[in-house]
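Board work, copied verbatim: Histidine kinase-, DNA gyrase B-, and HSP90-like ATPase
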Amino acid sequence: MPNHESVTPDAYSVIQSLRSVGYNLQSAIADIIDNSITARASEIKIRFHWNMDNSYISIHDNGNGMSENDLRQAMRMGSKNPLDRREKNDLGRFGMGLKTAAFSLCKRLTVKSGYKHDETFIRCWDLDYIKDTNDWTLITHAADNDSSLFLQQHEIKESGTVVLLEKLDRIITSPFNQKAYTEFLKKVESVEKHISMIFHRFLSGPQAVKIYINENEIKPWDPFLTNEVATQELATEQFKFGNTTITISPYILPHHSKITKGTFDRAEGLKGWNAHQGFYVYRNKRLLVAGTWFNMFKKEEPFKLARIMLDISSDLDFDWKIDIKKAAAVPPQEIVHEVEKIAKIAREASYRVYYHRGAKLAVDNTVSSVDYVWEQIYKHGILYHKVNRNHSLLLNFITTLSSEQKRMLNAYLAIVEENTPSNLLSYAVGKQENNEGNSNNSALDTEDAVNHIRDIIYAFRISGYKDDEIVNRLKHMKSFIPYERLFQRLMEETN
Ligand SMILES: Nc1ncnc2c1ncn2[C@@H]1O[C@H](COP(=O)(O)OP(=O)(O)O)[C@@H](O)[C@H]1O
Ligand SMILES: [Mg+2]
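↓ predict structure ↓
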């Protein structure tokens, strides 16, 4: 009596469950493209063909192709062991992508493949046939005339593979009217946008892959606007993890006034500016997640200019908890701290660029965690830097001071601000630009200036300086020149 029994899974039920793994049209097509890229295709042609319930989607690549044995193995559920080491450029993992992606869209998956001119092989899973036989019965030819005709339209030249998806019951449902057709076209457009994002690093460069949808070549969407001069690239950091390296390169995108409206609108991406902030996780250069703070921070408006490229290799799949759909990733505990540190720096940089042209910075409770040192104000056409008086260290310190000491500190800060190189420069530039009759050469408005000057006079006086000594000491400061008369007046007033 054997002490075990073999229980084979029920074919139809298994496949039915796999249909609900959670792919959508975009992620399913992307997973099929992964296989083409892994097979070193240089050209991938996607076709969305509308013909009511006879519509189909095909993905045709000129990659390595498969032998008959390879093809049979490729169609097997779990064709590879997820624990096996993959080649460096392999975008696959679970040996399930092709099948689960296909079944989440359609009921019939046919694959034609070959690697020698003139010799191709066909295998087909048809859910209706599996239902009838209730067995893992793989069809070894085109399932009917339509299939055969569609496949003939996609001739394999040297080598390559055609993946044909028919009976698109999850994509197209009756009635097959004009509205359904319009919906279909909208879906095609969303797939195009998704591909231009997910594969943007394959779509450019010297060995770029060409991907077409219905004859239109897909252009890459560069989340980092690397071609814009105003984009800031912060220092790249690398971490050793196991025997692989994780590379993190933060980018701060330009303030919208520094790029054209077209560029700004395109940079918004599929989900909008806010959603696309944070880390972009790439596995072997293929984008998995297009903007996340890994639950460390919330996505908020002033941080939307921070987009951080994070590269991992497929050896780290289990450390990063890569899922079957390749749509999620979680940093391993060992490097969470480093990742968070980089995020903070990038977020602060985004914050500064975001408010570049703002009037005085609004004190925003949602971002109180950011202790930026300089406030940027923009007045009379001149950018001017002020010390952020709400910096937590400064605030803590000020509370320990007497009111006299507070005035002294303010006077000193005003001098620091007046003599900050960037402000002196702004002043010089502003003076040139405002030469035509505008008497207010200062970046500060008069009320601010009066208060600062009062504090400065006060601070000098209580430190024992006489009025002519004060003027003498200040005279050689460029920024003092426009205030000289105001100084004299205020000194007389407060004498
Ligand atoms: N377009 C293709 N060209 C060549 N081989 C392919 C292609 N698509 C799939 N394959 C083969 O089928 C196997 C199974 O694919 P898939 O189910 O997507 O799982 P995975 O990509 O995780 O290995 C791949 O590992 C590959 O060997
Ligand atoms: Mg795959």
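Confidence is low (pLDDT under 50) at residues 357-369, 433-443.
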